[in-house]
Amino acid sequence: MNSSSGSAAGPSSGSGDESAPRRNSKRPKYSKFTQQELPACKPILTPKWVISVFTLVGVIFVPIGIAALMASNSVVEIVDRYDTECIPANMIADKVAYIQNDTINKICTRNLTVPKDMDQPIYVYYQLDNFYQNHRRYVKSRNDAQLKDADKANKTSGCDPEKTTKDGSPIVPCGLIAWSLFNDTYNFTLGNQNLSVNKNGISWKSDRDHKFGKDVYPKNFQNGTLRGGANLDPNKSLNEQENLIVWMRTAALPTFRKLYGKIHQDLKANDTIMVTLENNYNTYSFNGKKKLVLSTSSWLGGKNDFLGIAYVTIGGLCFFLATAFTVVYLVKPRKLGDPSYLSWNRNPLGH
Amino acid sequence: MGGRGWERMQTVRLGAAGAASRRREAAELRQVSSQTVRLGRVQPQAPSHRTIYCNDRDANNIARFKGNSISTTKYNVLTFLPKGLFEQFRRVANLYFLMISILSTTPISPVSPVTNVVPLSLVLLVSLVKEAFEDWKRFQNDTAINSTPVDVLQGQRWESISWRKLQVGDIVRVKQDGFFPADLLFLASTNADGVCYIETANLDGETNLKIRKALERTWDYSLPEKAAEFKGEIQCEQPNNSLYTFTGNLIIESQTLPLSPNQILLRGCSLRNTEYVVGAVTFTGHETKVMMNSMSVPSKRSTLERKLDKLILTLFGGLFLMCLIGAIGSGIFINRKYYYLGLFGDVEDQFNPNNRFVVAILTMFTLITLYSTIIPISLYVSIEMIKFIQCTQFINKDLHMYHAESNTPALARTSNLNEELGQVEYIFSDKTGTLTRNLMEFFKCSIGGEAYGTGITEIEKGQAQRTGKKKNEVNRSDTAVHEKGFNFDDSRIMCGAWRNERDPEIFKEFFRCLALCHTVLPEGDESPEKITYQAASPDEAALVTAAKNFGFFFYRRTPTTVMVRESHVEKMGNIQDVSYEILNFLEFNSTRKRQSVVCRYPNGRLVLYCKGADTVIYERLADANQDIKRLTREHLEQFGSAGLRTLCLAYRELTNDLYEKWNEKFIQAKSSLRDREKKLDEVAELIEKSLILIGCTAIEDKLQDGVPACIETLSQAGIKIWVLTGDKMETAINIAYACNLINNDMKQFIITSETDAIREAEEKGDPVEIARIIKDSVIHDLKRCLEEAQQYLHISGQKLALIIDGKCLMYALDPNLRVNLLNLSLNCGSVVCCRVSPLQKAQVTSLVKKGARKITLSIGDGANDVSMIQAAHVGVGISGLEGMQAVMASDFAIAQFRFLTDLLLVHGRWSYTRLCKVITYFFYKNLTFTLTQFWFTFQTGFSGQRFYDDWFQSLYNVIFTALPVIIVGLFDKDVSASLSKKYPELYKEGIRNMFFKWRVLAVWAFFALYHSLIFYYFTTAASQNGHNSSGKIFGLWDVSTMAFTCVVVTVNLRLLMACNSITRWHHLSISGSILAWFVFIFIYSGVMTPYDRQENIFFVIYVLMSTFFFYLMLLLVPIVALLGDFLYLGIQRWFYPYNYQIVQEIHRHELEGTSRTELMEVGNHLTPVEARSYAISQLPREKSKHTGFAFDSPGYESFFASQQGVFAPQKPWDVARRASTRSKRTSQR
Question: Which InterPro entries match (chain A) (predicted)?
Fold first, then answer.
């Protein structure tokens, strides 16, 4: 690094004569840092440690897993795939034509049986399959500034190809995400009684309050030649259009659920709910599935056994490993710090 | 002389560096322009020389010579940024990231430029700050040098100005011990005869003083009043880099006086033994010879770093593969059926399903920017920082490597090679000054068949330690004397006690032989305390000093007599000055291996005293007295195996007749004109026979402290040590014995040119024939040795040693024989190369470096070691004593050979393990991170959507995982320093490169894969279906933030698991990094600024943290990920423990001692190998065959030659050795 030997010319670097007085010693000062003697703990992974860590993890994980499983089991969930059912038999050969034909009445009824008692609130989800909300072209096709600020309605950068209408006026909200808004609708009746679906409070509050403006109203929406999905009420500000807000929070995976609404009524086991739905949304083009999901929730959320199973499996595995190690330890113990394990002792020639 | 000299210089310079010629051209240009303002005296200067007007600044101004200030800085304020950045972008990684950054400004990129720009600029910033800091230090150094004061003649007074203001032509005064500020023309000195003494240690490493003599014409300009009158004109060559030539003329009052190097005082030298000198400045600043010589040390790269390049290349391969997979996927995926992607109408190329090939190509680029994190951008800068601190804080400040006597701490001159120190397999060591102190001490003797001397040599101590016997040093009695050259104690003969021994007469002969038979010159006051002896070899001085201490004080020499003050001869206190007439002196040379004097006692007795190697003396002994011969032989062997250099002493009574007859022949031989040497030898043979053996002396070639122990430790560590020395074979073998490199258990192969056949050929003097014969013999020897070596290795497992001399080496290094030589020498435990030239040292080094691809280290102290130091992977210079040349060329400088133990076994090993850990960890963490992205790509239709936010990705390497790995690189310590030295075998792990093998990397890669799968699939699988009791669903950014949190936590904890010792810095940095992530995300997702491109992350962390899901995941994912590693580590340690792990376990209950030496005593139990060697050592075995033979010294002949006023070409490596000639020899002549 110090490539130059220029300092050789300096008076300071002479080798020095013995007689020259040495007032300034070059002795390095002692410090724990420079002598690398900082106090340190030195964990050694002894068999005891291995066994006890596995046991400990097992002890912690299994109960958590069981609790999570119980939470997941306590959730009652009704899943109904309707995209294959709600299609007239004559159109089954050409589903895309059916769904794209506005003149056909898309109303369809489904009867769902409640398997167990369901306590309110009951969440209504729709689930889409093979829908790449996380596709790069899709994800970036929005403009947050426009959504938030009424003054920035003209800001449509990034919204390709749903930026403007043909005559160049900006679309609010622009972009592919908003354009492809889900537009199936569900109505529930229990017996004769209509089950009202509350569509408020289905989005994250932070989205509502900060990402979607109170004074931003849809403009020129779904005006193009091609209709993507739902229309928006031009008189409702964006932050009230919660279905849009939910939809705009793009999902991580191509299979996802979105909250549709909440039913504030308890359901009894074996109740039959009649769902009257409008099968508007085109998933037939890309062979996607559409499912309607009614679900209660637990402290851990919806029905998802993954956490519970993971916890229990890992916990169980840990117990197994702990036992296995204990057995090995008892059968063939390795003396800690046995010098005969040193390679030069095992092989006297050391090669 | 001048004209011819210039021609020569010109050709030399034309051949020399282009820079010099460019400079000259520039000078010419200036001179051409200056011609237009020609003043009275100025004449057009020939381009090949410069004219300097002494003491006349105005006249010199026209030529515009360069100033005397020097600058060794790389940059200045203006050039710093462009030049510094240019340097940085010469690194492939930086350039790669620059390209990625540019790529990420295009719409093709899935990430915003910030992702790649931020880490790149941080890395550049750190590197530039470091560069600036180093340059600043250089600048300060320059400033300090430039502002050193010097006395300059101003008017009629000396005035002190700083060096930088000095100009060509100034008259300066330099005082004793001062450094010359520029290249000076020596005018006058306070010494008589216009002589001054200079030390050139900084230039060539030679510590002996050199004489410079001013021209007689200028002698009296030493006083300012007189000097002011000096108006000379110097015409001399243009600046050049040749240290030993100078041509020019001094023109005073139209008298032209030729100048030679003898009148030149070079910058960098210092003035000694002279009150002050006056000189005229000829070359200044960068034009001085020393500066023109300052070459930039070729920077070496460590083997580990070169392997790192391969790793990076592999990563590029991996990157390409991942991108290729993604690109093919994207080409297949893209389809109009996904109508929600808006692929109808006019679609940009990247997503246009009509041309899937273009889609794939473009996605390739997209993915390259997305996966760029696989290349660890901050790796290089982190490594640099770690190494820099390791050097400046640990190596330079290690108290165990501080040598108090010479006040020298260790010095790491480059920080590139720290970890290379942990992998050294071959050490090439110089002898004198490195292994030995070049200090001979009279240690033992055998007189009349009785051994005297109670001292114990280092090697005996070492042997005693090995065999478990405690050999306590005998308490020194009052009679013990220890002065330079004499370290002897035996109450039986000290203080005249020898008179009470059985046969005092033989003692007298012994002491007289010591006092008379030598070529030493006494110097100084003629009293035993104050006298100093000038001897060609330190051995001789030691012997004379011994005689002095035994009461035979040699104090004066005249051409024909030697004066000895004998005390204790008859009775105590009786002092008697005896003058012995020296009749003949039969010189020492390497064939005779003995020297003799014929002297006449005052009473007329004629005696021949002879001393020499045991072999030659025994051949010439009279038949009588077998007992003494046998006993002395035994003693010789004893002394020899104790590492002492021995000489036999013998005498012969001569009768007058016999002598006169012989003397005639001698005079005849001496005056013969042809083959005088040979004839003298023959005549000497005639009288050097029928000798009577007196006894022998044993001289300790004082080793540096702790050398045998250090060598023992190093060889236990699997390091092979080769001694490369300019010394003679006997000396070299002697030292090898003394250092424990060779012992009598070893089978020695000697390949030497000192055979009769070769000698015969040399006497005939036909060079072609000599070459042929030597070559044949070398070929033959090599073949024979190889065959034998294979036998020995296979059958007896005996250790082998190879001793080869320079001449044979020259032929053995021939490309055809190289392989054989390498084969043989690699199979030998130790190799000694003697009589080798500096170039051969380098050749041997690179033979092993390139031929065997082993990591080599060269250690040396003198100018003759420079080439070897530069040739090896690691060059170590011994600092403190012999000048700076070796140190200037070295990578590390230590004060003592024994510090190699600390440097290699402690610092080297730690650096190696630490850097391996750092590199593998970097590899792991970036691979893990990038692979999560890769898995995500599969579920986004291969669109290249990023999983993480831009800022997460950009700060991942530089903030969230940066510091802990540096801390580990600094503080991780598998076993303590004392244990590293106690178990030198641990070092073998480094030699075998155990911690940076592809297998190790494969394990890390496997866990990276495993972790990334866990991170990605666990978080995505667990995050479906709503995760708090309000039924709301997570989006992409919630999931990715969750995953990123897990990544940061796990990756940091994984590092903690890899640590061997955990200091509070580990805790601080690791928890700090995790904390930094949370602080960052709290702020980042909590604040919404108008500058955000997207508000994806807004509030995400708060949303997450309001769920149980988050905490359950945070517990689950890191633990599941780390359990895999934990299981691996547990099994590895349990069933396949590394050596260091066993050592850790052995000493697990020990507190770390504050002092490393404390632990050295602990644990005397023998390992099986030690037990075996102990048992072997106890077996009765053949007596040692080795006896030392002292009486040679490098440069011996040339010393004598110079004494006699004959010019003998001095080999630079000989001269450098002769520390003994330091004082002024001339004053006495």
Answer: CDC50/LEM3_fam
| Shortest CA distance from A67: residue in chain B | B1112
Q: How far apart are CA A199 and CA B809, in angstroms?
A: 94
Burial of B596 (0-12, 13-18, 19+ CB in 10 A): buried
Cβ B632 vs Cβ B613: under 8 Å: no
pLDDT tens-digit map of A88-128: 888 888 888 888 888 888 888 999 999 989 988 899 999 99
Closest Cβ–Cβ partner in B345, B348, B1148 for A337? B1148
Quick one: closest CA in B to A162, which residue? Answer: B342
Consecutive H or E run containing B196: strand B195-199
Residue A234, helix vs strand vs coil: coil
What is the number of other CB atoms lying within 10 angstroms of the CB of residue B1070? 23
Interface of A with B in 27-46 (CB under 8 A): 27-31, 33-46
Could you say which residues from 82 to 141 on chain A have a Cβ atom under 8 Å away from some Cβ of chain B? Answer: 121, 123, 125, 131-139, 141
Among the listed residues B1018, B1094, B1089, B1091, the one whose alpha carbon sits nearest the alpha carbon of residue B1050: B1018
**Is A9 in Cβ contact with B1029 (below 8 Å)?**
no
Torsion-angle region of residue B1137: left (phi > 0), alpha (psi -120 to 50) or beta? beta
Torsion of Cα atoms, A296 then A298 then A301 then A307, to 10°: -120
**What's the angle, vertex CA B779, arms to CA B778 and CA B785, rounded to 5?**
85
Q: Which residue, among A18, A32, A77, A135, would best test binding to B if mutated, counting the most B CBs under 10 Å from its CB?
A: A135
Nearest of B793, B819, B447 to residue B635 by alpha carbon: B447
Q: What is the DSSP string of B409-467?
A: --EES-SS-TGGGGS--EEEE-SBTTTEEEEEEEEEEEETTEEE-----HHHHHHHHHH
Is residue B595 a contact partner of residue B588, using CB atoms and an 8 Å limit?
Answer: yes
Distance in angstroms (rounded) separating the CA atoms of residues B708 and B88? 45
pLDDT of B905? 92
Q: How distant is the Cα of A91 from the closest Cα of chain B, in angstroms? A: 19
| Tokens 């005896």 sit on residue | B578
CB contact under 8 A, A252 and B1034: yes
Looking at the complex, does the CB of residue A52 fall below 8 Å from at least one CB of chain B? no
Residue A28 CB coordination number (10 Å): 17
CB burial string B1151-1177: b at 16+ within 10 A, e below: ebbeebeebeeeeeeebebeeeeeeee
- Active site residue: B170, B204, B430, B891, which one? B430
Per-residue pLDDT, B780: 87
pTM score above 0.95: no
Question: In this predicted structure, what is the pLDDT of residue B909?
Answer: 92
Please name the residue that has the structure tokens 């130059």.
A4
From chain A, the residues in CB contact with B1144 under 8 A are 42, 44, 337
**Known catalytic membership, residue B170:** no
Residues 6+ apart with CB under 8 A from A131: A251, A254, A255, A256, A283, A286, A288, B340
Distance, CA of A195 to CA of A263 (rounded, Å): 7
Chain B: residue whose CA lies nearest to A258: B1033
- B136 close contact with A: CB closer than 8 A: no
C-beta atoms surrounding A335 within 10 Å: 9
**Residues paired with A298 in a beta bridge:** A301
pLDDT tier for residue B1153 given thresholds of 50, 70 and 90: very low
Q: Which of A49-63, B195-209, B444-458 shows the lowest per-residue confidence on average (mean pLDDT)?
A: B195-209
Chain pair A-B, CB pairs under 8 angstroms = 379
- pLDDT score of B567: 76
**pLDDT tens-digit profile of B603-615?**
888 999 999 888 7
> Three-state SS across B517-574?
CCCCEEECCCCCCCCEEECCCHHHHHHHHHHHHCCEEEEEECCCEEEEEEECCCCCCC
CA–CA gap between residue B397 and residue B392 (Å, rounded)? 7
